[in-house]
Amino acid sequence: MKRTIKRILAVTTLAIVVTFSGLFTIVLFPQPLFANKVEHKQFSVYSNDKITSDIIPLLDNALALVEKSEINDPNYKYDILLAYNSLFNELDDKLLGHGPTARGTDNNVTIKVEIDAKRDLFFPTFHGKCQANLTTLLAHEMIHCLQANKYGILKFNPLSHPEMWKLEGYPEYIARQPKLTASDYRLTDEIDRYIELESKASDIWILIEDGACEAPKYYYKGRLMVEYLMDIKHWSYDKILSDTTSTNSVYADMLNWRNKIKGQKN
What we know:
This protein is of the alpha+beta class. Helix content is about 50%, strand content about 15%. Strands 1-2-3-5-4 form a 5-stranded mixed β-sheet, covered by helices on one side.
């Protein structure tokens, strides 16, 4: 009887391991699940829907943003998975849970929500229905791929990674360069905006840009801190990652700089 029970447990355990291993393999290498594929420069785009030429300029613009990053690899290949309403999305949700609009894992940039490439938009629904810029999202997730590519998957993965402001702030900094380099943009004004919104927030969600979507505060705060360190103090991303100064101290230093600048204007 005991031998029978042990055999049943062993078979059951093996079946569970094989099932989950298979699911994880599908999540990491889902390309065969998609009906259509288009190749362009460093990109392979996968979708069950017809892939129109509207996606091409978005890929070019996202790549142009990423090429400004110090961690860019000109030989890196990206697989863009347009997964909305796909079997892969269903399996991914069951295995990893609902929530993320997109994810950059290994060389896969997975867009899990509806997109409109012609209008350069994507449509998140997790926290609330909204729309935001698709090129920005692509560039953000591409930087996540490059983080793991440069620093190693052991240092950049869902279970082990730098502080959230360093993890998410840098992709935001690169992806939002068109805004940050505009002639009328001022970091001090953006810090003021964050402080005002943060003081009114009732949870972790905050409006990153007017008329866009909300995101956890550390996306916005992290981008401001990275922007301050890179543009004002002229740090590299390598230095940001290796620096052991606490989050609160970096934020306080940024506020002191902002107060000094505003004081000089008065």
